[in-house]
Write a structure and sequence with these properties.
With 184 residues, this protein is an alpha+beta fold. The protein has two domains: 32 residues, no CATH class; 146 residues, no CATH class. The protein is 49% helix and 16% strand. The chain is built from eleven helices and four strands; from the N terminus they run αααααααβαααβββα. Strands 1-2-3-4 form a four-stranded antiparallel sheet, with helices on both faces. A hairpin with a 2-residue loop joins strand 3 and strand 4. The termini are far apart.
Amino acid sequence: MKRLALPMALLVLALTACDPAADTPAPAASITAKAAAFPKGETGAKALMEALRAADGAETVKTLQPKAADYAAVFTDELASKAESFYKTKLWNGEKVELAGSASQTDLKLYQATTDDIRKWTPAVERDFPGGYKKLGTHLRPGLTVYRWKYTEPGEDTGRAYEGLVYVNDHWIWVPKAWEILEQ
């Protein structure tokens, strides 16, 4: 029986080493799977916003970290690399990021605007988005939709507010308070 134990152990080790799933760390695989769970558009945005306030919301936030190509898809050439540097320092610096309201803030209010409407600074955009977007508009690529949301108590208009959710390159990214890039 001892003669069989060593060859079996080597076989198991060899099979594990050849398993493609063993080459992918579990956290990266779970982040990718989470990101794929939220399709483009309002329905996907709402589902994502609900997931952000769930118990594992901090893990969901990690799926929103943009890559260089994502910054280039959202911002004009002169701002894309500056945005990447800004967010790597201010937001995606390894600290835990959570997006949630209090337990009593059970309602979700969703606002959206195209980057074309932000550039025009339409009355709806002025009403629903922070004023910083007015100066940011010319630095945004056309044809995108930016989402803003609030977690509020039922019947209330104020609550915990967030903005800067954008769907690019087949996934959601988060670029909040992007007008602050212009102030750097």
